[in-house]
Design goal:
By secondary structure, this protein is an alpha+beta fold. It is 38% helix and 32% strand. The strands form 2 sheets. Strands 3-8-10-9-5-6-4-7 form an 8-stranded antiparallel β-sheet, with helices on both faces. Strands 1-2 form a two-stranded antiparallel ribbon. A hairpin with a 6-residue loop joins β1 and β2. The protein is elongated and about 95 Å long.
Length: 256
């Protein structure tokens, strides 16, 4: 009979698998009639349009089943628009997180390229300003205000002994941004931008080991650099090589 199709016909015409069609039916997105004589599922032209709509929501708009259900069962234009707006907000949040991940990947790539060219070399750089946050915020610090967070250990001398004072998450402040009071209060320390002496190196030692910061201190003193009494060690990235974890560090001193 014209206008009636079996599930294999739908597969061939629309490129939608029978498992997907059964899943849509199970979730209540489509209602499928059965042939009383043989029990086969029978589809009509309206079912085809419904499946096309669902496939569009899933494949093109990347919409979840719950929101698709709201779209196909909307009783008013306003209800449909609300679901669409919600999904738009969700996609924009995914895009924001993806852009942050790309920024992190760019930074790691940049660090790898720097290490390949400048490893074991000292140089003076113009560093951006930022904030030190509690270490637990390492994976949550990214926002429209802060760009890229990574672990930083701080060291100071105490009674002529170099000591580890804490490990934090350093976040670069975006240009021309006024921080919210809550963010300023939660920050452990503000790090102004400016001239820093930097040393890139590789070590298997942990980030809280004071021995890691000693080479740059010796170098700075031997070459007559004046610097502030707080020293920073950043773990730019790390990976296992021949069953040994190697950490790629950046030691830095803020110059006076």
């Amino acid at each position: 009979m014209p206008g009636q199709y079996k599930i294999k016909d739908i597969e061939n015409m629309l490129g939608v698998t029978r498992d997907a069609i059964r899943y849509y039916s199970k979730k209540g997105l489509i209602e499928i009639d059965k042939n009383n004589q043989n029990g086969y599922r029978i589809f009509d032209d309206e079912d085809i349009f419904d499946i096309l709509d669902i496939s569009y929501y899933r494949k093109v708009l990347d919409m979840n089943i719950s929101d698709i259900s709201k779209c196909v069962s909307s009783k008013s234009f306003e209800e449909y628009l609300t679901t669409i707006k919600k999904h738009q907000n969700s996609l924009e949040e995914q895009l924001r997180k993806t852009e942050q991940k790309i920024e992190i990947i760019k930074y790691i790539r940049q660090e790898i390229e720097w290490f390949s060219d400048k490893q074991e070399n000292y140089e003076i750089i113009d560093a951006p300003s930022g904030y030190l946050f509690p270490e637990k915020y390492l994976y949550d610090i990214h926002s429209n205000i802060f760009r890229i967070g990574w672990p930083v250990s701080c060291f100071k001398y105490n009674n002529d002994r170099l000591c580890h004072t804490g490990t934090y998450t350093f976040a670069v402040v975006s240009p021309d941004t006024i921080l919210l009071n809550e963010q300023e209060l939660s920050a452990k320390e503000y790090l102004p931008g400016g001239k820093y002496l930097r040393f890139l190196f590789v070590s298997e030692k942990e980030i809280n080991d004071p021995a890691l910061i000693e080479p740059i201190l010796i170098y700075a003193k031997e070459h007559g650099f004046g610097f502030f009494d707080c020293y920073y060690l950043t773990c730019c990235f790390s990976f296992k090589n021949n069953h040994a974890r190697k950490n790629y560090y950046e030691a830095s001193l803020r110059l006076k």
